Amino acid sequence: MSAIDLEFNEIQGNILGGFNTNVEVLIGLTADRSRTSDAARWLVDLAPDVTSVADVQEQRNAIKPLARGGRQLPITWLCVSVGSEYLGILREDLFVRDEAFMGGFRKRAPTALGDRTDPNSWVVGSTGAPLDVFLIVASNDEPAAQQWADQLIASAAAKGLRPTYRETARRIDDLEHFGFRDGISQPAVRGFDAKGDVGPGYFVFGYERDPGDGGYTPSGDPSNFLRNGSFLVFRRLSQDVRAFRDFCASKAASLVGDWPGLTGQHLEALLVGRWPSGALASSSIFSDPGRQPNENAFNFLDDMAGRNCPLGAHIRKVNPRDGPRDEVNVPRLLRRGIPFGPVVEEKPGADRGLAFISFQTSIKDQLEFLTGKWMNSRLRPGPDAGHDLLVGRSTTTRSLRISGPQGPVQVSDDGLQWIVPTGGGYLFAPGRSALRRMLDPLPAGVSWRLQKAVSLAVNGLFEMLAIER
Ligand code: HEM
Q: With 0-12 CB in 10 A as exposed, 13-18 as middle and 19+ as buried, what is 182?
């Protein structure tokens, strides 16, 4: 037990620690709304199979010595989450005051996240096939994962939960499709990680955010259902690798007058903020220096003007660290994404990208803030930050200033995009006990009903007026 006493048997293992397996089968289920209690029973029955933090820790320790001896013991883990709208149907007494979660992904994607793709065309969570239940079957052994996925899908279908999405995502070592190492920087969680400095309440409900604050849960949870759970955001982001590389190569070529010797690879690294190896990118380092021992030991205090790493580089937009920013506390996410689709060299025309998955306890203040307020804005988090040209969205041409050897150069995206959002969902990953309580009777009395009605009406009004709170 840690000093904070996190309930490791309750909290799902993909939230803290993360699965990080070679293969993850992602499954989307859409519910027959007339069979709610069948589906709730199915979720209750699933509770013992859901992998907790304690399970992950125990099994990781068990396979470590075997792996050193060259043997592989198959591990297969499960993460379950329920879509925001469907959770409101299953547990009527829940009216979580997080308007992002309540509003739902399909409604919020075009406004709060700046996505432009039509939800009717999404691969997952489309208008006709809402993501009511999202399963992640993770394993280091693909046949085992596929077999369990088949069983889960068959048992779910018998309870009115129709499979509307299935995709097998596979790690490319630890790279994403543009060829950069990913998952290097994660918040260290107090009570879980060895030198954890970020309160667990930012990622798991019921725990402190700041020391001694009594624990965080949004109002609208009369039966303490959220405890040990977390909001899961899933964004399926297709990546056009050729478009990204061609853009960087031709942009670099067009800038040689202002920046002799600039290469496409150097520009790619400056847009990301790291080299493919994970080393911090800099205008004055012209090629990848390779993996560095302390690859996260930087805070940008020595680069406040972005002369080395551009202020609009992806990693500075989503985590400005101690550099210029207009918020004291940088919102953090636990990222659990995995690439999907074959690498570009294998099948150039195929759909590929990142199954971006993050855990947080406020979608609005964490994921949506980083995306809508910082990544998509030219002016934030610091003055003249420029757009995040890697992932950010904008209705206008995106641009970013980079310091070159002969002075600043302006890089505009020429209206091109290399990331296409192809669906996803806002979901809740419950603690194991909460999963077992899916069928519990609703609390007696009218007070929560009244509060819920008021809360829904206020939320609806804000949505209608498109006011950002
Ligand atoms: C296909 C889309 C994306 C690609 C290719 C991508 C790529 C990367 C890469 C290469 C890194 C550096 C590795 C690391 O520091 O761990 C990174 C870091 C990060 N990305 Fe993304 N990313 C994508 C989407 C997103 C989205 C949608 C968000 C949501 C806000 C996001 C948030 C972050 C965060 C928080 C970090 C860590 C920054 C730090 O702490 O230094 N990324 N990303």
A: buried
